[in-house]
Amino acid sequence: MGRKWNNIKDKKAAKDANTSRIYAKFGREIYVAAKQGEPDPVSNSALKMVLERAKTYSVPKSIIDRAIEKAKGGSDENYDELRYEGFGPNGSMVIVDTLTNNVNRTASEVRAAFGKNGGNMGVSGSVAYAFDKTAVIGVEGKTADEVLELLLEADIDVRDVFEEDGAVIVYAEPDQFHAVQEAFQNAGISEFTVAELTMLPQNYVTLSEEDQAKFEKLIDALEDLEDVQQVYHNVDLGE
């Protein structure tokens, strides 16, 4: 598949654990979701989705509660959701999603990260057309056939179901995210190895060893930026 979901998540968590960046990013995302609607996941589906994703990264309850309380307190801190698109070595494509309270700063930092690491920024739509927004749900303790049967019984159509490193990964339409989770929960499964909406490339590219090293440096530089929430790409990193 070119995309090892559990390996990627574990790698990011291990990388971010030392600096608590992952907690800061989730805190900001939870705050924004809670402020945009009711600060209650029961009535705020966007907040519910962020909290479910945070759970798969073991974000502490204190971080979650602090962000929600901040939103309840009527903080006037505002963030803009912005997406940047660009290119890395040899036809590689990158999408960068950000939450920022300073658009000029973020644009400058993202552009610099591309420029200093062998990439270049593209215009809106220059990359996103080659990706599909997809719900990704992962569970353990079931086979792919069992999961497919479970979802069919719940009358849920999915794009793909496959086994990966002891887990079963489900690709579904974005609007089926909660339906897939509820089908699992109704079957007694409440823990997920991955639960998020992502941008999946329609095709992967393989880079030379030299270009891959440059590309990984570019991705690390982007992910290190404070305002960057998610980075998506179409490179098979062989993970």
UniProtKB/TrEMBL annotation:
Primary subcellular site in the record, as a coarse category: cytoplasm
The TACO1/YebC-like N-terminal domain covers 3-74
According to the UniProt record, one GO cellular component term is: cytosol
A biological process (GO) of this protein is: regulation of DNA-templated transcription
| Protein name per UniProt | Probable transcriptional regulatory protein BpJC7_14230
A Gene Ontology molecular function term for this protein is: DNA binding
Keyword line: Cytoplasm, DNA-binding, Transcription, Transcription regulation
